[in-house]
Amino acid sequence: MVNAVSDAYSIRAAEYVERFASMDAVHPSDRQLVATWADGIEGAVLDAGCGPGQWTNFLNEAGIPALGVDLAPEFIGHARVAYPGIPFRTGSLDALDIKTGTIGGVLAWYSLIHHEPDAIRTPLLEFSRVLSPGGALLIGFFDGQVVEKFDHAVVQAYRWPVSDLSDELVAAGFDVVETHARTTTGQRSHGAILAVRGGAR
Question: 144 by DSSP, 3-state: which?
Answer without folding.
Answer: coil
